[in-house]
Amino acid sequence: MGIPFSQVLRIGSYILGNHIKGTKRYPLVLMLEPLFRCNLACQGCGKIDYPKEILNQRLSYDECMQAIDECGAPVVSIAGGEPLLHRDMPKIVKGALDKGKFVICCTNALLFAKKVDQYEPRPNFTWSIHLDGDKEMHDRSVSLDGVYETAEAAIRLAKSRGFQVSINCTLFNDANPERTAKFFDRMKAIGIDGITVSPGYAYERAANQDEFLNRTTTKNLFRNIFRLGKGHKWPFNQSVQFLNFLAGNETYKCTPWGNPTRTVFGWQRPCYLLGEDYAKSFKDLMENTAWDDYGVGNYEKCQDCMVHSGFEATAVIDTVRHPLKAAMVALKGIKTEGAMAPDISLANQRRAKDVFSDHVQQRLAEIREAEAAAKKETDAA
């Protein structure tokens, strides 16, 4: 299936409209993170390394709806943490759908069988199940045996209930092209509606810093996977130009504002992967972020990034602006041999800054101040 035609048409029209109006920056996908807490501790994750006071925080239903309205992106991707831990998640999903959004709810599937009855299939709603490869690959990635079977069972259950289901597959430096190709074949065979694939981002707080890919190994890995996949018609729900970029055939700069992120901290600057600062409003994020300070060639933390949250928007916009180029790639297939496109120089990038502790301490101070004020008000009553 890949990307539904209705979504392609809506997003294409949205991009063309902004292009005609001369809008310099506009969002495509709202990355909504209503909580950081998760029921897994994946080795490559940089989203869960917070004190429990922060992990206990949640965006309310009203805050989520406000973020959707502020942002205005046609797609809402709900991530985390583990979204199914949020008690109001069914209401949040329904609220986003009722606003006419395409909604993707990401989950590791551990709670899926228990929670699925709280949701109903809708044409614009997709479950995205986290699966980083076959049983051995995935269970190693999430540091817990048996999760692969649970995730595959969730896929079958969701399909039996009439839901659209995709998988979100992140690959690391131990990924084997042959095994990955067989895994994609299996996912297609069991009827998955879409595959989102991406190299892992080197989160500075991730437990295992040795498993991330650099740009050269990323390109070689995906060339090998796509070579093995010729004719297999895997249902990627990503643009062909992004996949072409993964194979080293495009020189793209990231579009960090394409997938803006709202978390319990606020609007995350500059992107889903980097929390260097937080804005209090979407308008502030878009107008007052030093965008040129980030991206490959500009900032050390970005140097190996080829993740879909940063580059899919670039690829989609390129496709809309140059449809014949994208059509030729789709017709001929992704090039897996020969010279790669030149990469962006890293010679002038600025050094990375460690800002995590400052953000944590600021948020903890805010939480404790709010708790103290609430206690004082209760005691006074």
Task: Walk me through the structure.
The chain is of the alpha/beta class and 381 residues long. 41% of the residues lie in helices and 12% in strands. It has helices spanning 5-21, 52-55, 61-71, 89-98, 112-115, 135-142, 147-160, 177-189, 215-228, 240-246, 282-288, 308-321, 323-332, 356-380; strands spanning 29-32, 75-78, 102-107, 125-130, 164-171, 194-199, 261-263, 266-270, 275-279. Strands 6-5-4-3-2-1-7-8-9 form a 9-stranded mixed β-sheet. The chain is globular.
What are its keywords?
381 residues; alpha/beta; 14 helices
Indicate the structural class. alpha/beta
The total count of strands amounts to 9
How confident overall, as mean pLDDT?
92
SSE sequence, one letter per element: HEHHEHEHEHHEHEHHEEEHHHH
What share of residues are in beta strands? 5-15%
Low-confidence stretches: none
Q: Strands of the largest sheet, in order across it? A: 6-5-4-3-2-1-7-8-9
Helix count, DSSP H or I runs of 4 or more residues? 14
Radius of gyration: 20 Å
- Main sheet, how many strands, which sense, barrel? 9 strands, mixed
Q: State the separation between the terminal residues, measured CA to CA.
A: 59 Å
Shape: globular
Can you give me a brief rundown of this structure?
By secondary structure, the protein is α/β, with parallel strands linked by helices. Helix content is 41%, strand content 12%. The chain is globular and about 75 Å long.
